[in-house]
Design the sequence.
């Protein structure tokens, strides 16, 4: 049993750290190729350029729109090579970050990640999820190494729409339960080893942090305020969840997320929102005690994470449609199979229906 743990080389988090970008990335080279969505770039561009300018570091900002596909990464790789990039910097949310990772992998360059939203646990990992043009999963690209620097400006995160911050909690909500499942099944983590005690404890801490500080952090972010609770939850969403999922393993929550994601109507749902529902379905499938499931559903309702299929956008909840989701969730290679008992589409289907029913009941009890 070989244990493996991987992590980014440096993690930096704080209010206003974006103004110190050069200080934290200058050791990686002198030419930086930034990739980000238009909104993300508009937030950081001036401040980053000012910081890099002070040290005579050269930067290029490339606007990125669309999905993370092999084609989009190849196109950007050509541009980055032409520029002579020594480091790729991914700015924004999931897609831009995953694309920047793929580009840096292609160039074998240094990699910096600057998340402007804390909506998922992608920033710290060596994984880039690529989709085909039709919104279907293409492949999991495993990078040679984790990002060299992850730079998180808490003030920028707090000023972004709350929905992203909450979705990040949805992604982080799955981390402990998936990690725990992997220890029971001896499933391998992403680098292909067993989880270290460190990774497991970080996953556990991730869950406890959400339970303790999630609601107050959400309320503060509603007001664009950075409080100690917000800092704790940013760390949970970005660092703890990232280290936890990568070095302790993923399981059904993420596999079921892929299944639901394949259904019509979920195009606008965020990764973490789907994972939150996937987490409830995993707990149902693994027959967790009612108290634990109620705690998770209660948390979701308190912070505004979806607990029903309708809330993630699925309009057709016919058995036939849900069967399709269950089949996708059970596709070979998906982490649904990291469970400690054999999983098939029938089990997943039951779990999805059961989770949805619990979610509906919880909303009814709340008077929705
Ligand atoms: Zn995730």
Sequence:
């Amino acid at each position: 049993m070989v244990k493996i743990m991987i992590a980014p080389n440096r993690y930096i988090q704080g209010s206003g750290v974006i103004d110190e970008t050069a200080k934290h990335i200058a050791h990686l080279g002198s030419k930086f190729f930034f990739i980000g969505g238009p909104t993300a770039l508009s937030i950081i561009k001036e401040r980053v350029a000012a910081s890099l300018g002070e040290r005579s570091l050269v930067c290029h900002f490339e606007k990125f729109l669309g999905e993370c596909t092999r084609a989009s990464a190849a196109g950007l790789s050509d541009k980055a090579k032409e520029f002579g990039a020594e480091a790729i910097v991914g700015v924004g949310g999931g897609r831009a970050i995953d694309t920047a990772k793929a580009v840096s992998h292609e160039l074998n360059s240094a990699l910096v990640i600057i998340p402007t939203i804390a909506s998922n646990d992608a920033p710290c990992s060596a994984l880039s999820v690529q989709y085909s043009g039709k919104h279907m999963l293409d492949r999991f690209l495993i990078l040679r190494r984790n990002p060299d620097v992850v730079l998180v400006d808490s003030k920028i995160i707090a000023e972004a729409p709350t929905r992203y911050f909450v979705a990040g909690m949805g992604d982080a909500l799955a981390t402990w339960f998936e990690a725990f499942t992997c220890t029971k099944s001896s499933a391998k983590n992403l680098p292909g080893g067993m989880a270290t005690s460190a990774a497991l404890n970080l996953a556990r801490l991730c869950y406890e942090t959400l339970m303790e500080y999630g609601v107050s952090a959400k309320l503060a972010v509603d007001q664009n305020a950075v409080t100690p609770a917000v800092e704790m939850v940013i760390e949970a969403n970005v660092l703890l969840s990232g280290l936890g999922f990568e070095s302790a393993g993923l399981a059904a929550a993420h596999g079921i997320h892929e299944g639901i994601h394949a259904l019509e109507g979920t195009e606008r749902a965020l990764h973490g929102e789907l994972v939150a529902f996937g987490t409830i379905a995993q707990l149902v499938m693994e027959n967790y005690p009612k108290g634990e499931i109620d705690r998770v559903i209660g948390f979701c309702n308190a912070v505004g994470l979806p607990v029903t299929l309708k809330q993630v956008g699925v309009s057709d909840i016919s058995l036939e449609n849900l069967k399709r989701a269950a089949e996708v969730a059970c596709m070979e290679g998906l982490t649904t199979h990291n469970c400690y008992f054999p999983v098939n589409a029938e089990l997943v289907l039951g779990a999805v229906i059961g989770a949805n029913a619990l979610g509906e009941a919880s909303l009814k009890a709340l008077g929705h």
